[in-house]
Amino acid sequence: MSADLTANAEEQAAAGDVASQIALAATLTKSGDRANALAWLRRAVSSGRPDAKAALGRHLLLEPPLEPIEGLRLITEAAQDGSGEAAHLMAVLDASGQMGPPNWPRALQLLQRSAELGLGLARAELALLAHDSALSTGLSAGDVPAPSTWARLAASVDVAAWIKPPVGRAVHRNPRIAISERFASHAECDWLIARGKPHLRLAQTDDPQTGKPTYGQGRTNYSAELDLSQTDVVMHLIRARMSLLSGPPVNAMEGVAILNYQPGQQFYRHFDFLDPLMPGYAAQIAEHGQRVLTFLIYLNEGFEGGETEFPAIHWRNKGAKGDAMFFWNIDGAGKPDRQTVHAGLPPASGEKWLLSQWVRGRV
């Protein structure tokens, strides 16, 4: 945001415009000024508006220093007061597995409530979860279904079918690599691309000395690293499916990342494990555990090149749309496996989309 626009937003916020206060807080949060963002959100909440409560609750749940008790209270109040966004975030919290085992019935009830309150995202989500492609098309065209639609869709969602993974098969044992064909449907892949696209930015890597994200020459693609509020019930059902196929629980998973490679963009040869001899990585391992597993879903086709390359074993993989590949970054003894060195090769034409899910573990 330019200085003029920032000054204008501050002027409107100072005059008591709640929408400007919320928008200014979002800008300040993005720039790292969490203290001032929090101050503006608390000022906005004094209005009593549900959207202000939802914004402050989200901030307290996601931005350090975390205050989850107050954050959950505000989100709950906002949903009760008619905020579809708050009801959706509550659905995500129940589905995520970050606050205990996923509660799918309650997540679907909250998703239904969000749809009834008019949130377009929740409505599209329910149509996808119920496999109602005609409704999905109609919603995209601006159709407004009958109010009873959302309860009917929520009741028809088959959670067990959603999280049941297709069969996987090992393709290499050293390093340990497996693939699962048709792991995700084409509709799911399209959904994931659409959800990630607005949040794309130049991808970063963690600095080995500090452990902090940084831009470098080793990675030139784009990435959308989604925080919890940017995810949805669809994503968490897919993560539950990943867990059932690969083994580690969902609460060991890092955030969802949607990757985009334009022609010529690549992720040069690298390891996904964290080298414990590097101070920045050692601190991460101590706090969060080693990055033990990588799970990839190939989200599109129609590009040339762009394989995932494992040069140590002279093997490349390019899955069809919806196929998955996962590999362990540690060996059977729990040590970093240097055979897992790999690269995201550049597409020669067209663009490549992937979902990347890293998983932590104590070894």
Word description of this protein:
The chain has 363 residues and is an alpha+beta fold. Helix content is 43%, strand content 18%. It is built from 14 helices and 16 strands. The protein has helices at residues 3-14, 18-30, 34-45, 50-62, 68-80, 84-96, 104-116, 120-129, 133-140, 149-156, 159-163, 186-196, 233-246, 279-288, and strands spanning 169-173, 176-180, 201-202, 205-206, 213-214, 222-225, 257-261, 267-270, 290-298, 304-305, 308-310, 315-317, 324-328, 342-344, 347-349, 352-361. The strands form 4 sheets. Strands 1-2-13-9-16-7-6-3 form an 8-stranded antiparallel beta sheet. Strand 11 (308-310) and strand 12 form a beta hairpin. The chain is globular, with a radius of gyration of 21 Å.
Structural class: alpha+beta
DSSP summary, beta strand count:
16
Spatial order of the strands forming the largest sheet: 1-2-13-9-16-7-6-3
Rg measurement, Å: 21 Å
Beta-strand portion reads: 15-25%
Q: What general outline do the C-alpha atoms trace?
A: globular
Largest sheet geometry? 8 strands, antiparallel
Spatial separation of the terminal alpha carbons: 44 Å
- Ranges with pLDDT <50 over ≥5 residues? none
Q: Please report the number of helical segments.
A: 14
**N-to-C SSE string, H for helix and E for strand:** HHHHHHHHHHHEEHEEEEHEEHEEEEEEEE
Mean pLDDT: 96
Question: Helicity level, as a percent range?
Answer: 40-55%
